[in-house]
Amino acid sequence: MPLVLPDLSKVPITGLSGIAAILVFCLFSGISIASYPGGFTPIDMWLGDYGFPDINPAGAAYYNLGSMLTGLLLIVFYTGLYQHSVASPARTSLRTAGQAAGVFSGISLFIAGYLTPAVMPGNLIASYAFFALTFLAIIFLHMAFRSRPFYSEATACMGLASVALIVLLGVTQALASIEPIVAEWCALFALISWIGLTSRDSYRRARGRCHD
Question: Which keywords label this protein (predicted)?
Fold first, then answer.
């Protein structure tokens, strides 16, 4: 059976930018992790630690550049959600609020990569802002899109899982005796999954497999 590739001219901007954001983040983070002299360790090392030039001289630039590019792609991803009709003024306002929070989360991620983790407290503030704004973006978009045909049950569940993990990350971060490193990795994995599922839903909607 011949391989049939999708017509990219018919793929919505959210679908393209969302998948591109996942690929860019995973590629550049993977190169950075592979370049780290101490090896891969999600148990006792924050993902952002791979962006420190002092401890990852060969790979920090890849991680920080990947963060900047991913931030730009997330801006496009959230902006493209205007194509989803939500049928009521209240939901439209929620969608707009979610898009705005998402765009600013992308800007925060770009700033975090630009400053690099070695620049404190700027990088730390930008990183906190990224998670906080992502939390708001998913909450608002979930409220705007829930029960709509184009927003699948799997996407909704993964969005709620992302929100729960971000809350867990924030709560454990506030407790000095707990290092929520694993929670950060899990939150990012859930967020990447939600972006991927939302991109898939946008593509299915554009192909006419589901309707507003």
Answer: Membrane, Transmembrane, Transmembrane helix
Distance from C-alpha of 112 to C-alpha of 64, rounded to nearest angstrom: 8
Which amino acid makes up residue 205? R
Residues 98-153 pLDDT 10s: 999 999 999 999 999 998 877 788 888 998 899 999 999 999 999 888 877 778 88
CA pair distance 106, 7, nearest whole angstrom: 27
Q: At what angle do helices 122-145 and 181-206 cross, to 10 degrees?
A: 40
Cα-Cα-Cα-Cα dihedral sign, residues 4, 9, 11, 14: positive
Domain residue spans of the chain: 9-205
Q: Residue 1: is its pLDDT beyond 50?
A: no
| Structure tokens that stand for 175 in this block | 């407790």
